[in-house]
Amino acid sequence: MSELNLSRNTIHFAEPLPLQSGAILPNYDLVIETYGKLNAAKSNAVLICHALNASHHVAGPNPDNTSDIGWWDNMVGPGKPVNTDHFFVIGVNNLGSCFGSTGPMSINPATNTFYGADFPVITVEDWVNTQARLADKLGIRRFAAVMGGSLGGMQAIAWAIHFPKRIGHCIAVASTPKLSAQNIAFNEVARNAILSDPDFHGGNYYAHGVVPKSGLRLARMVGHITYLSDDDMAKKFGRELQRSAGASPEYRFSFDVEFEVESYLRHQGEKFSTYFDANTYLLITRALDYFDPARRSEGSLSRALAEVQAKFLVISFVTDWRFPPNRSREIVEALLVNKSTVTYAEIDAPHGHDAFLLDDARYHNLIRSYFQAMDEAKV
Amino acid sequence: MSELNLSRNTIHFAEPLPLQSGAILPNYDLVIETYGKLNAAKSNAVLICHALNASHHVAGPNPDNTSDIGWWDNMVGPGKPVNTDHFFVIGVNNLGSCFGSTGPMSINPATNTFYGADFPVITVEDWVNTQARLADKLGIRRFAAVMGGSLGGMQAIAWAIHFPKRIGHCIAVASTPKLSAQNIAFNEVARNAILSDPDFHGGNYYAHGVVPKSGLRLARMVGHITYLSDDDMAKKFGRELQRSAGASPEYRFSFDVEFEVESYLRHQGEKFSTYFDANTYLLITRALDYFDPARRSEGSLSRALAEVQAKFLVISFVTDWRFPPNRSREIVEALLVNKSTVTYAEIDAPHGHDAFLLDDARYHNLIRSYFQAMDEAKV
pTM of the prediction? Predict the structure, then answer.
């Protein structure tokens, strides 16, 4: 076969979900997309976990809007590095997100109105629990691999820790075992931009018919700076002035858009504010902040990873200053202390944190070979 | 003598000031502080230029509030690296600032109300012009040195370029010959936070009796992250939870302050929003963006520096990721192309960009020796 075989489903979970915070979600939906075919042994399933602003829509054209191509389409599909001719790939929209799974924009059955600010704080471990329940529903006892970049990589790591028998390979790209103080600080600025937007209304803006757009714009702008490398920004924009053809190349001496990079950032912020939910932004950045598996073992990551059975593939990018290579090396070193199996690559790509989403031959060939080896070993 | 001999004055300039933007300021005041004594030959004057949020109040206790110690008090004073027993030091509050010199909070003689958003955009070169006029008033034909950190260093460089005969030594610490795209991007986020605050009222908030505090807070928070090194933040805060003694060390699962670094940032933002003016923040960040002396010589910094006669002392800090050492090296290399005299030091201080304000023995001893040599040479 050589078709993507995209299928989208909303799956309802009627069983209450106890969360790490102590709250209990009475029931919930998860939206998923699948690609390829689950084999008879149900042994070829790969779970793809998404990062901050993505969704279940990993590959191919969106059935509702064919110009909307999946966020990891260069990675997943027939003949792609994660080859859907051989693997059955599942993309799942995380709980708390704003793309169809239950989240702040959903109706709270206890109040018959939007959850809004009442939606409970969610952790990476909560997501992994919902994903395990999803696997149960699909009859998948064990994933061939769980895979993600950035926050998606954290979910893959949490899978290896909490469901050691249910994951063959853990693939964590551009990830970290926990946020640094600087990472948390940037998240805090973004959250404060949203929280202090008068249109936020304490998280219940849906009822007011408004959206805290200016907070969302700022949150995205500051986030976006951390996704790109300094060099990449310099190459893309430098100090070029934003000018239409033939316009004066002189400074305009104003606070309007003057440099290309300003125009780009404003555009990114504006675009984001039209499709992303502010409460979801708060929730997901907080899940990032809280992720710290070593916390339960007095800061020892190797002890936190002591029970993992998955083989690891860890990949970092040299110019990623959000989760730089030394953060990935912490994971690798902890695994080596435990004599776990780990493959590690540091890719000299110029695109900063965003590199995990981009098509780099060295990176893609590595993933391709890794999955080929996995397929041949019939793991 | 061994007294600081602090003297504060407001100096009025009745002559109109043509600005780089083409606007003309009809008249203006500059607030200055001086320390030490001007010698008979008027050859021992040192001009200290301030960065974003500082002022004329460089050293010693503020006469109006003795607990307010000058921002570079560890550097300037009797027996300090810039020794006021030998040098006559001048701190000047820049035009457009909010600490007494004419700026957006001043009355516009054309309208008899606050300048507000009508205050013209100011450049580093405009500041240097006002400082040269100040020198004229004080009868100082030539400064022994012009010195500053960060944006202050840019002013020192502009002095060397535009008044080559009037400056003996140019001392630029933690500076850069121009902002990078990433630097501009961070400024743009900060400005957008202010511009999108509903209390900004297009810059005319004075008339509304409000202050765009939430914009200022966000601007300061994002700025502050760039002043500290990642390592320094990790050492200062790590992932410590903000807890009173005896409180539970567990996560609270909320968007309120959870980590120490959040508390610190919010505190810095809040403090800043009580004393700094939003229009001034816009003006000063724009002056940073626009500084680019090589622009007038087709991007060649060595050509921009071709006429300098000053000897340079350039200092950078290894952990400064705002204006990292490679930015200072650009200055040094351009000077070496011209066979100008330059001393360069890269200090392995852990405190990021803020290191230029802190007391590091290697850094201070270097400045001390440099000024002693300058004094003995009777430059």
Answer: 0.96
Q: Is B250 exposed, middle or buried (0-12, 13-18, 19+ CB in 10 A)?
A: exposed
**Radius of gyration for chain B, computed over Cα atoms and rounded to the nearest angstrom:** 21
Q: Is the pLDDT confidence value at B247 over 90? A: no
Q: Which helix (H) or strand (E) holds A114?
A: strand A113-114
Amino acid code (one letter) for B176: T
Distance CA B355, CA B69 (A): 18
Instruction: Give the nearest chain B residue to A122 (CA atoms).
Output: B253
- If you measure CA to CA, which chain B residue comes closest to A323? B230
ipTM: 0.95
pLDDT in tens, A57-79: 999 999 999 999 999 999 999 99
Q: Chain A closest CA to B222's CA: distance in Å?
A: 6
Q: Which residues of chain A have pLDDT under 50?
A: none
Catalytic residue list contains B320: yes
At position A45, the amino acid (one-letter code) is A
Q: How far is CA A266 from the centre of its chain?
A: 23
Q: How far apart are CA B6 and CA B57, in angstroms?
A: 10
Chain B contact probe: residue of A182, A237, A290, A351 with most B CBs at under 10 A: A182
How crowded is residue A73: how many other Cβ atoms within 10 Å of its Cβ?
Answer: 16
Cβ-based neighbour number of residue B77 at 10 Å: 25
Q: What is the tens place of the pLDDT at every residue in A152-175?
A: 999 999 999 999 999 999 999 999
Looking at chain B, the whole-number percentage of residues with pLDDT higher than 90 is 96
Residues A289, B258: C-beta atoms closer than 8 Å: yes
Cα dist from A156 to A42, A240, B257, whole Å: 19, 40, 28
B218–A189 CB contact, under 8 Å: yes
- Rounded to 10 degrees, what is the CA torsion of A274, A278, A283, A288? 60
Percent of the residues in chain B that have a pLDDT greater than 70, as a whole number? 99
Report the gap between the CA of B294 and the closest CA in chain A (Å).
Answer: 12
A–B CB contacts, 8 A cutoff, strictly below: 146
Would you place residue B248 in the very low, low, confident or very high pLDDT band (cuts 50, 70, 90)?
confident
